[in-house]
Amino acid sequence: MKQTFLIELSVLTALVVLCIFRTLQSRKKIRGSVLFVLSAIVIPLLGNIIIASSESPVVCNTGYMLFLMGTNLVLFTLIDFSFQYCAFTSVNRRVMAVVAVVLAADSLSVFLNNFFMHCYTLEETVLESGEIYYVLKSGLGHYIHLAISAVLIFMIVGNFMWKIVTTARLYLERYLVILLSVILVGLWEYRIVLLDRTVDRSMLGLAIGGILLYFFAIEYRPVFLMTALHELLVANMTDAVLFFDVDGRAIYANKAASEMFGITKASLSSSAALLGDEITGSEFVENGSRVDHDFRRQVEIKNGEETRYYDVTCQRMEDRRGNYLGTFFGIGDNTQVERERRESLYRQTHDLLTGMLNRETFIDRVNHILADEPDESFVMLLSDIADFKIINDIYGRERADGILQGIANAIRRTAHEDTVYCRWGGDQFAALVRKKNIDPEGLEKKIHASLKKGNEDNVIKFPVVIHAGYYAIQDRSLSVSAIVDRCRLAIAMVHDDYQRCVGVYDDKLRQERLWEQRINAELPGALSSGQIFPYLQPQYNSRNELTGAEVLVRWQHPSEGFLAPYRFIPIFEKNGMIAKVDLYIWEEACRILASWKGTKRDGLHLSVNISPKDFYFVDIYETFISLAERFGLDPKKLHLEITETVVMNDAVENINTINRLREYGFIVEMDDFGSGYSSLNMLRDMPVDVLKIDMAFLGKTSQPKKAELILNNIIDLAHQLNMLSIAEGVEMENQLEMLKQMGCNVFQGYYFAKPMPLEDFEKLAA
Ligand code: C2E
Ligand code: CA
Ligand code: CA
User: Fold this and answer.
1) Burial group, residue 456, by CB count within 10 angstroms (0-12, 13-18, 19+)
2) Which of 4-13, 260-269, 506-515, 736-745 is predicted most confidently?
């Protein structure tokens, strides 16, 4: 009998020690309290082993003391555990202090039993098996001990009950399992203590209670809790979650799924194609609502105006043996993120004012298209608004922006669907068009029509003029920017043309441009290094006497050779650099005149050309006066050739300048008379000394009689207006004779001499 009890006790003690070791390995927070309880339980267990195994009352008494005091310690640790486990941290300390004092007093009382015998006495009993066992006979002290124990156990039970009542139902299980263990053990204890008094086996219950406590606190994971948590998690996820069974019926949809796709309880069980093919994908639908493999994809669903974006995950569900259980869909609504992503992409790739692609993106696309379709012919177009800066200044940014938007819309409206276009920058739009879809004339008409409409719609009072450059892309090695540059060159060709607005690029045009850029850059060096110098073309009077010469510029170019003025003068006239050339030539002419002073050539004059542009860039009056003074010249020796354009451009001011120059003494000649438009009218307002008749009058004509008549009258008119007349371009003797007959005063032309270097002229006039 004692033997069995001892074995039971030893086994349980070993188990409790095992639990202690297991607990030591745990990382849970409650670990400390559990260790405390388990360790405490070992003490009364040892006490009980002593009681059961001893044959002497003294040793047995020690066992009982150990047992009773040990149970006190167990109670203390249990109370600590209950507070920790229930997380009643705030009350912990104070209550624990009181409990400690009470239990310590009780333990003292147990110890004092050695002297007063007020708790228990030991009674030697012979068991049925014949063994001697010392049974505890309770005294008042022991009853008090039991009562204290009972109170403390109720306290523990109360703690858990309170927790169970106040905590979320979800967590009930955690506390319930412990509470039930405590109650069970408690009942077991009191049954033994109160009913079966022969051998006190209460320790068995306590040990089992410790083991249960270890199990529930350290090892056990609340099953219901986890399931419930999982369920809650799925139900409240922001992603939609759906399950389809083996037959493709939807059997579960969480809250998000119901909201996202309007799924109701009724629709859930009724339909297999609950989500629609777009989301579930054809795999799901075709295979009778099964998927062969898991997939994940982005789905875009248009619903009227609105587009929504979903991130769909589909997984087949299998049990452990690989049997198909159904299909799981997780669907995230990415709309917000995707919209933001798209918007930022749009901002990066588009011009925000017009909604067209921006330059960088256009370049990218064009490069791809040209690389992908090497055999297709493409045209690059560039449009440019004439005087957009002025529109901006006068009408303000807003209206100007409106024009840009209008043009962007017109391009969108009229462009072929294959065409890629962009806002190249500022007021320029570029487009890459398939050659078969466009021709320059068609484009011309299109632009005219659009502009007419735009101008009629009265977008702006100012008539908007648009130029377009057309380049049929030949050289694919060019960068897109270089291709667009060629369009810009083509625009430059029609820039001043009021009839045409589409310029077509050709290579000659580019060569010209390159030439222009080159000589513009080279001019300053050419002037300072003497590459530019004057040629003189002699002029004769009616008695064939040399009277002077016209000064004509020449450029001895180091690589291009000898350049006549037509190669560079028109270019310099465009950008005003002509003034630099002229100032130089005028000064050279004055230097020559000055060098002739006191020689045989003293009586000769020199005529210099004044470009209309000079009037913009130079103070003509100041310049000539200071030249004449610097070189000490008689102004009569310097003839100034002007053209009628000068007077047309800025009549009053320029006429004034010319008058003052004449008053000073310079001779002013009207060059190229008869080649302009309003020659006759001009003579009325224009005070000049000499009329220089254009060589066109001497050219070949089918009506020689009429030409002669006109020429004759012009010369007469000059004389009547008190002007002298010079004929230029005299090449034949009969021309000279005829002009002499008509009374022309001075003659210049190849008949006498071509323009020549200064030395040659000086020999001629020696
Ligand atoms: P322009 O003022 O009418 O000068 C006369 C041009 O006619 C010169 O050409 C001369 O070589 C050419 N010429 C003279 N006699 C004959 C002839 O019998 N037959 C033919 N076919 N041509 C003849 P060039 O020197 O090439 O000058 C061309 C134009 O360049 C000039 O026309 C003038 O407008 C401009 N130019 C020349 N030098 C200067 C200059 O120093 N400054 C400015 N601003 N313009 C200049
Ligand atoms: Ca001239
Ligand atoms: Ca002339």
Assistant:
1) exposed
2) 736-745
Cα 552 to ligand 1 centre (Å): 6
How much distance in Å is there from the Cα of 429 to the middle of ligand 2?
Answer: 43
Domains defined along the chain, listed by start: 2-226 (1.20.1070.10), 237-340 (3.30.450.20), 350-505 (3.30.70.270), 524-764 (3.20.20.450)
Q: Is the pLDDT of residue 422 over 70?
A: yes
Angle, CA 301 vertex, CA 297 and CA 306 arms, to 5°: 140
For 436-470, the pLDDT digits (tens) are 998 888 888 888 887 777 666 655 556 788 999 99
pTM above 0.85, yes or no: no
Residue 204: closest CA among 220, 218, 192: 192
> What are the counts of helices (DSSP H) followed by strands (DSSP E) for the chain?
27, 21
With the most atoms of ligand 1 within 8 angstroms of its CB, the residue from 569, 613, 732 to mutate is 569
Residue 748 CA: which ligand is closest? Answer: 1
DSSP 218: I
The SS3 of residue 610 is: coil
CA atoms within 13 A on the CB side of 7: 3
Regarding the beta carbon of 582 and ligand 1, being less than 6 Å apart is answered yes
In the block, residue with structure tokens 């068609």: 442
- For 683-709, give the DSSP string: HHH---SEEEE-GGGGS--S-HHHHHH
Distance between CA atoms of 669 and 658, rounded to whole angstroms? 10
Detail the DSSP E strand segments found in 177-254. Answer: 240-244, 250-253
Report the 10 Å Cβ neighbour count for 720.
Answer: 8
Alpha helices in 619-766 (DSSP H): 620-631, 644-649, 651-664, 679-685, 704-720, 733-742, 758-764
Residue nearest to atom 45 of ligand 1 (CA): 609
Q: Which tens digit of pLDDT belongs to each residue from 338-388? A: 999 999 999 999 999 999 999 999 999 999 999 999 999 999 999 999 889
Q: Are 510 and 489 in contact (CB under 8 A)?
A: yes
Does ligand 1 come within 6 angstroms of the Cβ of 642? no
